[in-house]
Amino acid sequence: MVEPAEVQHGLEDVVALESRICFIDGKQGRLIYEGYDIRDLAARSTFEEVAYLLWYGRLPTATQLSELTRRLVELRRLPDALATEIDELPVTAHPMDILRTAVSALALREPSETKPGESSIGGAQRLTAVLPSILGRFHRRRAGLPPLRDRPELSHAGYLVYALLDRDPTELEARAIDVALILHADHELNASTFAARVTASTLSDLYSAVTSAIGTLKGPLHGGANERVMELLDEIGTVDRVEEVVKGKLSRHERIMGFGHRVYKVEDPRATILREWSRRIGDAHGSLRYYELLRKVEEVVLREKGLYPNVDLYSGSVYSLLGIPHDLFTPVFASSRVAGWTAHVLEEYHDLRLIRPTAKYVGAIDLPYVPIAQRH
Ligand code: ACO
After folding, report:
1. Is 222 an active-site residue?
2. Of 222, 285, 326, 327, which residue is the catalytic one?
3. How high is the pLDDT of residue 184?
């Protein structure tokens, strides 16, 4: 028997597969999608353009981009049966649970004549287009907002804001959300993408892979962290209390959400960009409170623990200022990362190899079997 190699807890530093989609340089703090630096994409592209890039491996021409934008608008509509099912789910549920359940149910409710090939770019586009509609359908009911209308003139970012808030974003807000979606669209083999690829590697379908990914993103050590950052700010209240609250948490070995990263050993480049957007949106809304609190939290965590912010530190402050409820932060993240999940799933189908690692067995062996009547 071949002895397994040393255990890499949490698969840390394990190179599991080859991918052309995303590169993270954790030492230099760089993030690259298909060869393009995230700073260029955040400054110059749109979510639709980035989704095209991730799915097709190249930037679109103007015609290709307008064709994709039109497709995504067409694919937003929920099947009637699914809309009814979403209406029957408890309004007290967490929207990530709604999303997971609805994506799973969508696979059963797609009318067969329009159902995209499950392992095709069409399926990736359908899943990306539909997430804001699922969230809007659920959230509008619990918030007493009017039902969703078709808004074909709105981009993915604009429609997401409209679906959740029943208002159109200002130009600045629309750009802030678009940038946040670009920044969240992919991140190499993060836990949820890995979960999606594991599911796809068994030759399971795209809907199942995205369902796995949503369940994985939900956890507070992954996508759920931005929601907890806002809880921390609520607990802190004012800048003069940051020092006391943060040091207290660190002395009790509690984690400060929005800090630290498995791959980045320096500042997450997405945090750098979102910090600036948090300031801009704060300025536009006449409230730099979150921004100033977060700057102070950063100062204390870096000094006391040597940890840098990750993407989740500033995103919540941008969403909060727009009026997005805290429990919808991770679903907003999912409405972007779905582009990356599906790109990875398509890559997995292409380079298929069942993902099945091995464990170092540390249990007993050769125990004598005791009949049930003799056990105590
Ligand atoms: N607050 C306090 N201490 C921390 C934090 C944190 N946010 N992050 C890491 N540490 C400490 C750990 O306690 C540990 O200290 P120790 O060696 O004294 O025990 C040390 O730093 C190393 O931590 P690990 O958990 O081994 O690092 P890992 O690579 O597994 O963790 C993770 C990465 C899970 C992101 C971690 O930094 C964390 O829990 N951060 C808070 C949650 C968060 O912000 N998640 C979002 C990540 S980005 C994303 O998923 C979109």
Report:
1. yes
2. 222
3. 98
Task: Provide the mean pLDDT of the chain.
Answer: 95
- Three-class secondary structure assignment of the chain: CCCCCCCCHHHCCCCCCCCCCEEEECCCCEEEECCEEHHHHHHHCCHHHHHHHHHHCCCCCHHHHHHHHHHHHHCCCCCHHHHHHHHCCCCCCCHHHHHHHHHHHHHHHCCCCCCCCCCCHHHHHHHHHHHHHHHHHHHHHHHCCCCCCCCCCCCHHHHHHHHHHCCCCCHHHHHHHHHHHHHHCCCCCCHHHHHHHHHHCCCCCHHHHHHHHHHHHCCCCCCCHHHHHHHHHHHHCCHHHHHHHHHHHHHCCCCCCCECCCCCCCCCHHHHHHHHHHHHHHHHCCCCHHHHHHHHHHHHHHHHHCCCECCHHHHHHHHHHHCCCHHHHHHHHHHHHHHHHHHHHHHHHHCCCCCCCCCCCCCCCCCCCCCHHHCC
- How far is the centre of ligand 1, averaged over its atoms, from the C-alpha of 299 (Å)? 17
Task: Reply yes or no on whether the pLDDT at 145 is more than 60.
Answer: yes
CB of 17 closer than 6 angstroms to any ligand 1 atom: no
Q: Whose CA is nearest to atom 37 of ligand 1?
A: 260
Tell me if 21 sits within 8 A of 34, measured CB to CB: yes
Distance, CA of 156 to CA of 49 (rounded, Å): 11
262 Cα to the center of ligand 1, angstroms:
7
> pLDDT for 66-79, tens place per residue?
999 999 999 999 99
Q: Which amino acid is at 231?
A: E
Identify the burial level of 310 via C-beta atoms within 10 angstroms of its C-beta, where 0-12 means exposed, 13-18 middle and 19 or more buried: buried
Q: Which residues on adjacent β-strands are paired with residue 30?
A: 25
CA angle 190, 179, 287 (to 5 degrees): 110
Integer CA distances (angstroms), 269 to 42, 58, 252, 340, in order: 11, 22, 29, 18
Rounded average pLDDT over 14-31: 96
Q: How far apart are CA 136 and CA 156, in angstroms?
A: 13
Is any atom of ligand 1 closer than 6 Å to the C-beta of 221? yes
Q: Whose CA is nearest to atom 39 of ligand 1?
A: 221
Residue nearest (by alpha carbon) to ligand 1 atom 47: 222
Ligand 1, atom 4: closest residue by C-alpha? 255
